[in-house]
Amino acid sequence: MKLLKVDTIKQVLEKMDEHFSDLKLGVELVNIGEAMGRTAAESVVSELNIPDFNRSTVDGYAIKASDTFGVSESIPVFLDVVGQVEMGKAAEMKITSGKTAYVPTGGMIPEGADAMIMIEHIEEVDNHTIAAYSSTAPGENVIKIGDDVSKGEALIYKGKLVRPQDIGTLAAAGVRQIKVFERPRVAVISTGDEIADPFEAIKLGQVRDINTYTLSSMAEELGAFVTIKQVIRDDYSLLEASVKAALEENHIVLVSGGSSVGNKDVTAKVIDAMGEPGVFVHGIAIKPGKPTIVGKAKGKALFGLPGHPVSALIVFKVVVEYLLTKLMSRENQRLQLIAKCAVNVHSSPGKETFQMVELERTEEGYLAIPLYGKSGAISLVSRSTGFIRIPHNKEGLTKGETVMVELL
Amino acid sequence: MKLLKVDTIKQVLEKMDEHFSDLKLGVELVNIGEAMGRTAAESVVSELNIPDFNRSTVDGYAIKASDTFGVSESIPVFLDVVGQVEMGKAAEMKITSGKTAYVPTGGMIPEGADAMIMIEHIEEVDNHTIAAYSSTAPGENVIKIGDDVSKGEALIYKGKLVRPQDIGTLAAAGVRQIKVFERPRVAVISTGDEIADPFEAIKLGQVRDINTYTLSSMAEELGAFVTIKQVIRDDYSLLEASVKAALEENHIVLVSGGSSVGNKDVTAKVIDAMGEPGVFVHGIAIKPGKPTIVGKAKGKALFGLPGHPVSALIVFKVVVEYLLTKLMSRENQRLQLIAKCAVNVHSSPGKETFQMVELERTEEGYLAIPLYGKSGAISLVSRSTGFIRIPHNKEGLTKGETVMVELL
Predict the structure, then answer these.
(1) Residue-number span of the structural domain to which B177 is assigned
(2) If you count residue pairs, one on A and one on B, with CB atoms under 8 Å apart, how many are there?
(3) B67 with B192, same domain?
(4) Predicted model pTM
(5) Complex ipTM, two decimals?
(6) B310 vs chain A: nearest CA distance in angstroms?
(7) How do residues B53-90 score in pLDDT, each as one tens digit?
């Protein structure tokens, strides 16, 4: 049994960085149509220019811009129409001074032309001649080769979550498949003699399992593949067998419950029994969530989370999510909403306090309204839009103070 | 051919509300473990109290609080230990004045007790007696029956997106399955003589299909089931056959391209040919995205979106997403980030302008930095974190002005 010394969140994350530096995910190749929500495992560079021909942004006539310099409503220039470009076809004609060709929006601009004059600014004189009434600058109404993406430019970066517009950009560049990180495999084990299957009749003194459901869903939301969801009794041998089996095929094993320092604190012992270095964090200076264990064995990550559903959820957000996103090299810059605190909020000195809030949209912006509930109240989290972190060296929050809200 | 009158976004959404009031989604029953990201189709009320017994939040002794009134470090009260409650078991003993029983954290509090005194505040005198050194208030360290959720309280509301914590709350209440809206079925058709399959060799003058990919992914991200992804030539008969088939099995048909008023404006004609009322919006006063069509036929929704990828994406966000979330009765209160505008931004008077931005986190909050690219530049959207809407009656944005950023 190691000495119980509580770490700050910062210390915990540093220790995790150090211990889990050799924990890596594999990489797999997926079709871009199936890449949504996955994380790019390498940057992809365009092998093409987009577009790969000069394209018109208007319906009009391709011209040498210099032919129109100085023309106006009263002094047009007359140009010979040498042809008409069809959508999706190469422009075969060549434009020299005094010549022009019709090009539809999105069509290819013929060689020699450097601008498009809109149909609104010309008049058809006869079948072979137009009068152009507007001075047009070189490059006007033209998307040039490589204007959208140039050959060699990055289409997506390693660690980026793939969004619909990224898939569009990859398609535009003719990229059929990309390398993404394999889904981190996670096992979720809830321990507790009082925990019962939610859908069985329960006996007085028992409570229904919550953590297996919330922790699995949160892991899946981040892109993990949850291989095991299990509830077991608070028994050393049972937990040892269960964790041992889970370690075989998972990157991360989560055990909720059994992490307090009572007579039934078996999680720490089981993690230590799995191999070196075993438990390296035992207690975090946060509220709620203090009785948290982080360990490593067989090159995998093991977490002992509090049994209280709200605490387990907060600890997941703070430490497990950190590791999951880090494994995927994902930029872990969580977007936060700026809000004004609606009332004074107390905090626990010496601990980073997590305060659940709901948001109200006002004329001036968002108002963060603290929600309270007794420890363990899962309905509290269900009613919350997010939470505020109050640093350990700060004494609560003042009404009207600006706060950052992390969404749940 | 109807008169081309451009509507404001507000007018378009009102017309959609009116025309699509009879477009409804079916409902299906799913296990709560598979409900993540789906939308509740009815509110669910708890049939139980959570917890359904008085529960201890500490390791300690169950007492009648009044027995400790006035006690202190120097004047303890001595209590007879009548037993020990086991986790997950009913408390069989009864506490009367002068009696107590040990209860672990999460254990059931015996009948007659109304508070818990922590082990830190007692001393074991012998096997049958403790000395209590702290005055304890009624209800202290106790979660009472129904404190988390009371019988009859709502666990989730109709129209709510199911999150991990909601699944936990439902599990806690023993709810195995919930009714969710069926996935809206969506067909995505891109038209254009220049559009080619992204993964085939393309000819000069052709461009690779982008919209099928982005529009499908965006619809899927919102929970839709995309049944058709198709690229066809700008040909009336082909498009008519394709849209007709798509209408059979889908709630929404998206056609991108072919919606401008050029000589190839076939989308509007095809939608009108599908049945009454046909096209009821032809043009929206937004930039980009003006050439947008909304119609109805056979009780289904049809959209003609611009061919330009950025315009198509914006229009999807503004009108298609509105309908999709409305069909699922989902609260469409999109969360927006408050930011300061980094520079002056121009807008198009008379049109609601959409400006792509990236966000920079500063000491004071977020800074919205406008990103520019030529029309059709999909890479612009890929580089953007979100967009700002500039109302049609507002002349651009001023550096330092507070803006709301919608995330992409």
Answers:
(1) 33-50+147-181
(2) 288
(3) no
(4) 0.91
(5) 0.89
(6) 9
(7) 999 989 999 999 999 999 999 999 999 999 999 999 99
